[in-house]
């Protein structure tokens, strides 16, 4: 199993550009989520999904869109990048049936100029 | 709402020193507790978890944590740290009320171990 795979690992964007961060998992996990990690602020939940076709907002959803057309994939879209979105982004997944721990991807380091 | 506090933001120790990182949560009902570690440049990895049973939980790499319900705490300990333990440590809680069991994260503790 590859686990949780995120691409790209690094990206530099200009303000106003759009892009999609990809996340895929091969563990048949229903629950997937996106976090951003910023110094001094820990992990903050952006969006999450409890299954294909179902998404919901987390703590800091503004400026981001998600979709969950399949169980495996949970892409995060930045519609119009802003410098405040410079961060490290982590995708995570976990199984259902109790309180399973989350499995994290390697992260995407995103810089917005 | 449930919240998680990690009181030590930065800790610096010498090798072989003992470690205790504090974690407190705000809601005293049924919770599930986790410690994650993030080594420099890497993703988060689960160190240990507590769901029920023995409140003293053993994790990987010699770490352990003790769940003390009366104190709403889940402190992480290691008797003797190594340089390779330099990392950021995150405490997280799942509040078992309701159906929406999201992880609530602490802000993290940065541990530096001097060789």
Tell me what you see in this structure:
The complex is a heterodimer of chains A (113) and B (115). With 113 residues, chain A is mainly beta. Helix content of chain A is 0%, strand content 51%. Chain A has no helices and 11 strands. Chain A is globular, with a radius of gyration of 13 Å. Chain B is mainly beta. Chain B has no helices and 12 strands. In chain B, strand 10 (87-95) and strand 11 form a beta hairpin. Classes of the chains: A mainly beta (113), B mainly beta (115). The A-B interface holds A 40-45, 48, 58, 90, 92, 98-99, 101-102, 104-107 and B 9, 32, 34, 42-46, 49, 51, 90, 94, 96, 101-103, 105-108.
What's this model, at a glance?
By secondary structure, chain A is an all-beta fold. Chain A has no helices and eleven strands. In chain A, the strands form two sheets. In chain A, strands 2, 4, 5, 6, 9, 10 and 11 form a seven-stranded mixed beta sheet that branches.
Determine the number of helices of chain A (DSSP H or I, runs of at least 4 residues). 0
Q: Give the beta-strand count of chain B.
A: 12
Classify the secondary structure makeup of chain A into a structural class. mainly beta
Radius of gyration of chain B: 14 Å
Number of helices of chain B: 0
Largest sheet of chain A: 7 strands, mixed
Helix content of chain B: under 10%
**Main interface pair?**
A-B, 18 and 20 residues
Total strands of chain A: 11
Q: What is the H-and-E element order of chain B?
A: EEEEEEEEEEEE
Shape descriptor of chain A reads globular
Q: What is the typical, i.e. mean, pLDDT of chain B?
A: 89
Helix content of chain A: under 10%
Low-confidence runs of chain B (pLDDT<50, min 5 residues)?
none
**Kindly, what is the distance between the CA atoms of the first and last residues of chain B, rounded to a whole number of angstroms?**
41 Å
For the sheet with most strands of chain B, the description reads: 6 strands, mixed
- Beta-strand content of chain A: over 45%
């Amino acid at each position: 199993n590859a686990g949780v795979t995120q691409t790209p690992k690094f990206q530099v964007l200009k303000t106003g550009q759009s892009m999609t961060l990809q996340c895929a998992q091969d563990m048949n996990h229903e629950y997937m989520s996106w976090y951003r990690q910023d110094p001094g602020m820990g992990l903050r939940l952006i969006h999450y999904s409890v299954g294909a076709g179902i998404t919901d907002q987390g703590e800091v959803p503004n400026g981001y869109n998600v979709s969950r057309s399949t169980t495996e994939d949970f892409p995060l879209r930045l519609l119009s990048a802003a410098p405040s979105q410079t961060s490290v982004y982590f995708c995570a997944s976990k199984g259902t049936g109790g309180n399973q721990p989350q499995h994290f991807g390697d992260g995407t380091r995103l810089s917005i100029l | 709402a449930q919240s998680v506090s990690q009181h030590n933001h930065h800790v610096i120790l010498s090798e072989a020193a003992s470690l205790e990182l504090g974690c407190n949560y705000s809601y005293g009902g049924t919770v599930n507790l986790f410690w994650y570690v993030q080594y420099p440049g890497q993703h988060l990895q689960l160190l240990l978890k507590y769901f029920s049973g023995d409140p003293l939980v053993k994790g990987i790499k010699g770490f352990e944590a003790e769940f003390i319900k009366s104190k709403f705490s889940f402190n992480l300990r290691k008797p003797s740290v190594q340089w390779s333990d330099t990392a950021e440590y995150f405490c997280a809680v799942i509040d078992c009320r309701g159906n929406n069991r999201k992880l609530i994260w602490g802000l993290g503790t940065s541990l530096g171990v001097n060789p």
